[in-house]
Task: structure prediction
Amino acid sequence: MQEDFHYYATYAAAILAGYTHKESLDIAYSAQFVDLCSRTLLSKIKAPLKAATTQLQLEMMDARTDIAGLQDITRIWASFHFLPLDLYAVKEKRPKRYMNKYRLICGPNGELVKKTVDLAKDKPLPSTGIAMHVLADTWAHSYFAGTPSLVINNTTDEFYEIITTETGSAERKMQFRHNPGADDILDESIYTNSIYQGSENSIMNLGHARAGHLPDYSFARYRYLPAWNDYKDVIKDNPSDYLNAFCQMIRAMRFLRSDLPVFETHEYDYDIIKPYEDRIRTILTKRQPIASGDWKAFGQELSSESIDDFDINRYQDEYLSAVDKNSTFLGQFINGSIAHKGMVCRQIFESGNMLAGFVG
Result:
């Protein structure tokens, strides 16, 4: 997912969940900040590096792919962007090494989603934002794993976009290129993805890189052949998944506000969005590279307030000048990110899987 959903759509979901304008901005800021809180940024503000929630492209270029390096990558990406669906999944006739990676495949409504939301309960609002980012990404990034793996994350070139037509739908074969500086050409289904690398642990095989930005586009519907499914067809319907993510975020945040006694997976607040459903579906299905403008307009109509554009520097001076770092917005985000990463990595380790390292 991109800033359009993590910031602006999260703001709208928070308003619908009952939060104030200021609270919703704080939640949305934290949700988007998960995609930007790198070690480079943490070094700049002299904050603990273990709070990193992402890795910049330049950081990834220097990342090691030995055991320690792979564990470091997995701790970040599996925790915050590709939350595992089932750490105890079973697939017949596969060795343990394969299964350890297979069990990190991301998906919605797993046990770790509930643990993620529960962990944010009674914590400062930045923890709510972190949880909403993680929850939303389980929908967008489903079928990919947050660890470098050719045998899990690879795909073939057989990608077909499902296009809505006047008479129903049709398939159009996608074209992929490998220039990260080139924009996707949506009208022609030309997209950018990572270069094929035969090395199992290549960074090019992390997450959904082999599928490019398709998981990040709410309008995208496509059929493809992933390695984890033995190169059999999988159909991904992003508009439906993003709608579920939006309604599940509302549900989760109502629990975090104590409007609901418990958060359960597979429950969505469709009734709350009913008056706005057509508007939301129109945003989700519009073919555009990023829907920030549409989500921002919708959020402002909901709250009758102006939504500040995201500014990565907004809270840095406060953190740098504070004597008590824990009382600052970024201090609360940092504490929340460390707690969440620790919880996920502990669950991975306790399942008998060492891909995120040893957690005592």
The chain has a mean pLDDT of 96. Residues 269 and 354 are 37 Å apart (CA to CA).
